[in-house]
Amino acid sequence: MPRDGTHTRNRILDSALLLALEKGLAAASLDQVIEGAEITKGAFFYHFKSKDELALALVRHVAELDRQNHAKIVQRVEELSRDPLQQVLLACSLTADLVAPSEPNPGCLFASYCYQGDLWSEAARKICESNFHEQAAWIEGKLKQAAKLAGRKGKSALAVSPAQLAMMFHSVFEGAFVLARTYNDASLFRKQVLAYRDMLEAVFKP
Amino acid sequence: MPRDGTHTRNRILDSALLLALEKGLAAASLDQVIEGAEITKGAFFYHFKSKDELALALVRHVAELDRQNHAKIVQRVEELSRDPLQQVLLACSLTADLVAPSEPNPGCLFASYCYQGDLWSEAARKICESNFHEQAAWIEGKLKQAAKLAGRKGKSALAVSPAQLAMMFHSVFEGAFVLARTYNDASLFRKQVLAYRDMLEAVFKP
DNA sequence: TAATCTATACCGACTAGTTGGTACAGTATG
DNA sequence: CATACTGTACCAACTAGTCGGTATAGATTA
Questions:
Q1: Which residue of A31, A161, B12, B99 lies most exposed, with the fewest beta carbons within 10 A?
Q2: What is the model's pLDDT at position B153?
Q3: Closest CA to B59 of B2, B122, B149
Q4: What is the pLDDT of residues B164-202, one digit of tens each?
Q5: What's the total number of domains in chain B?
Q6: Same-domain pairing of B83 and B13
Q7: Is strand C within 7 Å of residue B24 (CB)?
């Protein structure tokens, strides 16, 4: 099938993502990316004109997958419940299941990039920020609705603002990966995301 | 002052730390470390026999600073309050002040290492794990005391276990750095750590 | 329908520069 | 005289990136 290059392109992206999560894309040489994709140097430079371009294409690729995943979770959660707080709690549970405990290098490409100055271009940063913001805005909106509902039932102000709670989702999400790697225990990711969910519930429930 | 080599050694460590937080130590060349330390190649290899050895010495160095800092916070906090929950909350506040909002590259060396496979040796991992564990164990102990105290006053079980709450400190701590870098806003670190504190309080208070 | 042309997809040898690391002769200090 | 360097020259291995060439599929032409 010499006509369709998307197959090769995707192989390159897959290989690069694997290496990026294992050792960081900056530390991975093009030769390693090429070897992983089982192609040749010529093929690589046919699809990407530089390593920087690959790096940017990779964040774009991952950001798109992340966006789709979030959309799927939102859709699923809207089907499962009408209560905004329950929707957020369910979304946390679904996110916790995202990472299989057997995964060898659980991690987030965004975090990997942001600790590697060379790849952390303004363009890459904006892509990550945009993804974070979109998801945080969804959570924040739901939590504001939940706060309003709780208010009608005669509740006092929240201990933490919906905006900070929403952002904390990503703090815990990203931090949980660091924890999992540091303690060498992939199951910690799941546990921490679920702990965040329980904490969220506690802030609203009482 | 040719008798004391610790000065030069510290200059190398400082230069390496700066570069590690800016672009990752793997991406930083020895020539850059040497230039930053304002020494020569000869001097570098007099003190460290390889880049790997520098990397390990650097985690050790940072881990020691971190340990000292934690000890200082614990001491300060024990002076300020006798209540275990208040002690933890105060410790969070002091930690939030750790990072100046003007800092150019706020971040954690441990997180930087753990996303750069080459540096993430088992030795380095254990050093990070040990630091994390020591601090989490302190928080967990305090929270268990706090839970017991609250129990005497007729409280029900906690929404989240002290162990998970204690680990979440590092999740939020590490995640907050990623957030600060992604949103390009160093003040987010402080806000997230304080939000964690408020959430902790909410879990215990009601 | 065979010959020619064109674009896409890919190969792999090659190069110029950088990397971590070595070697070693010299110097200043306590 | 040992310690703590400076300075420079050097090396093999690796790096990103280049370049001329090839194979194939499909459209155009004779």
A1: A31
A2: 63
A3: B122
A4: 999 999 999 999 999 999 999 999 999 999 999 999 999
A5: 2
A6: no
A7: no
